[in-house]
Write a structure and sequence with these properties.
The complex is a heterodimer of chains A (116) and B (109). Chain A is an all-beta fold and 116 residues long. Chain A contains no helices and eleven strands. In chain A, the strands form two sheets. In chain A, strands 2, 4, 5, 6, 9, 10 and 11 form a seven-stranded mixed beta sheet that branches. Chain A has a four-stranded antiparallel beta sheet with strand order 1-3-8-7, with no helix packed on it. The radius of gyration of chain A is 13 Å and the shape is globular. The model of chain A has no long low-confidence stretch (mean pLDDT 95). Chain B is mainly beta and 109 residues long. The radius of gyration of chain B is 13 Å and the shape is globular. In chain B, a hairpin with a 5-residue loop joins β9 and β10. The mean pLDDT of chain B is 96. In chain B, strands 2, 4, 5, 9, 10 and 11 form a six-stranded mixed beta sheet that branches. Chain B has a five-stranded antiparallel beta sheet with strand order 1-3-8-7-6, with no helix packed on it. Chain B has no helices and eleven strands. The chains are: A mainly beta (116), B mainly beta (109). Chains A and B meet through β10 of A and β5, β9 and β10 of B.
Chain lengths: 116, 109
Amino acid sequence: IAGITQAPTSQILAAGRRMTLRCTQDMRHNAMYWYRQDLGLGLRLIHYSNTAGTTGKGEVPDGYSVSRANTDDFPLTLASAVPSQTSVYFCASSIGAPYSGANVLTFGAGSRLTVL
Amino acid sequence: GQNIDQPTEMTATEGAIVQINCTYQTSGFNGLFWYQQHAGEAPTFLSYNVLDGLEEKGRFSSFLSRSKGYSYLLLKELQMKDSASYLCAVVDSNYQLIWGAGTKLIIKP
């Protein structure tokens, strides 16, 4: 592993199903983030974690939950998927927080989720 | 509200120079990032400006004017591989990162 690994790469999901998007980093970064990217909109922060054991809500947290049991892993769970959660999801990490020239975001390759 | 404005799409010719503008209205300012994102891929870091002026990195330069709420990314000697979206993002006074929708740059031979 080098950098951030996300899984699955893509998934089609029936509405109402539960889904967990996995994110693992091997850079020993303290801070991790989940973003969603939709056409015509900027990246929107869903949840973040400044350090293992802590999490916080971003701009669009409803319908999503996260956990940060250790430094490396930051899974995102959709408890009951809805079509409006169709999006590309990016996991990102930085050495620390807050955002600065020293705390640049490194992104995973993304997970494309379609909810029908 | 907080707002980041970038042109939706720009077209340029291989070997030429292009300037991608970003204007912002945010509650405070603590830095501005530019990221490059190729279609279907992850955004990758290009530059960070926190003070006024021009920062040069090879073929790419980024400029900031805090008084005007304005930044631009200058790409010189354009190559086909520069075809991508360019994302502008501002750190506000609460250290939230506000993203623009991105500028899709199309390079023609």
